[in-house]
Amino acid sequence: MMKVAHSICPSCSVGCGVNLIIKDNEAVGTYPYKRHPVNEGKTCRKGRECFKIMTENRLKEPLIKEDGLKLSNWEDALDTVASQIKSYPSHEIGILVSGNYTNQEYETLKKFADALGIRNIGCHTGSVPSSNLETVALDDVEKSEFILIIGDVIKKYPLLGRRVILAQENGAEILAVDEPDKTLTGINSQEYIQVESASSIIDEVDDIILEKLSPQSTVLISNLESEDDFEKIVKFFEQSDAKIIPVFQDCNSRGAVNILPVLSSDDMKGMLERVKLLYILGDDPAPHMMESIKNLDFIISQGYLINKTTSISDVVLPGSCWAEKTGSFTNTTGETQEISKIVDAPGAALDDQIIIKKIAEKIGLDL
Question: What count of other Cβ atoms lies within 10 Å of the Cβ of residue 113?
């Protein structure tokens, strides 16, 4: 049996609509979602191939470390997790979550942390820190008279880049600011300011450019390595009347910052050095912070992908991907969109919200 089901692409934070082609409870392809207001039926390569996320490198069964990771069952895995969490004081427990979960899962996780008194919790969202940012419609980008772009938005976020190109076709002036290597965004701009680093961007933006930043202008900010640079650049452009859109890293990073603390790279490293037990949901810090992770007593990994961090964890809990759950995502412009469960998770994998609640029940909490 074959069906087509509406969803939201999880490949980036733009929030494009995508239709999944389902055959025998398995995603086998995508089809244009022509009526979706964000992308209007257009898809980038990642969007067309997002169905592969559901099958590649999937975790399907609970695992427990016993001379290496061994297949287990939910009862033993949950008992082990609960007993370990209960054995540590709250200040020695850390929770790290990616920007790929639903708003509802973030809310449940926050309740879980608050009930246990855990303060070492947060989401790493790339270079975008927590900010009181207004909701900006993508139509506003397309209707802009002047667009200043920091980073290679057109290449990395093609459907956001499409709105920039449409604005240009309508007469908008496009100014790109990026590092010296020639970028796709720079090629498609009337003016391309090449800078040595993000921290020097402000020095390159003169009064003439600032005067162009009217209420009919938009500033798109992506590709910054430093949270400090982002804060400084946002504050600088807030003196203008332009709309400011930060381009978040993951599909629901903006939803995460509305609910949970945001962790910079330094914050995350500090957490790993403070705590002894780490509960990780969907993130993979091991490749970048292996030295800090090696000092942990116990690691609990939850998610749907096999990665470097799951391979060194003490317990691995198989979760669900976006098409296997119901909830909502908030995209990079601040618009919240609902998603619905389309297929069942494979093997013994469970909905992540259910897993968090089952751990809470084992500990004796009522969420």
Answer: 22
As to burial, measured by CB atoms within 10 angstroms (0-12 exposed, 13-18 middle, 19+ buried), residue 364 is: exposed
**Residue 239 CB contacts under 8 Å (≥ 6 apart), including other chains:** 210
Q: Which two tokens stand for residue 152?
A: 């290679």
Q: Which CATH class is domain 63-126+254-363?
A: alpha beta
Asked if residues 98 and 346 have their Cβ atoms less than 8 Å apart, the reply is: no
Q: What is the pTM of this model?
A: 0.93
* pLDDT per position as a tens digit, 7-66: 999 999 999 999 999 998 889 999 999 999 999 999 999 999 999 999 889 999 999 999
Q: Extract the tokens encoding 15.
A: 């929030």
Residue 243 or residue 135, greater confidence: 243
pLDDT digits (tens, 9 = 90+) for 106-125: 999 999 999 999 999 999 88
Decide if 216 contacts 241 (C-beta within 8 A): no
Rounded to 5°, angle at Cα 352 from 53 and 314:
90
Cα–chain center distance at 47? 15
Superfamily of domain 138-247: Dimethylsulfoxide Reductase, domain 2 (3.40.228.10)
Upper half-sphere CA count for residue 115 (Cβ side, 13 Å): 18
Q: Which CATH number fits domain 2-54: 2.120.10.30, 2.20.25.90, 1.10.10.60, 2.40.50.320?
A: 2.20.25.90
Q: What is the pLDDT of residue 223?
A: 66
Per the CB < 8 A criterion, the answer to whether 300 and 72 are in contact is no
Distance, CA of 355 to CA of 284 (rounded, Å): 19
Tell me which DSSP letter residue 135 carries: P
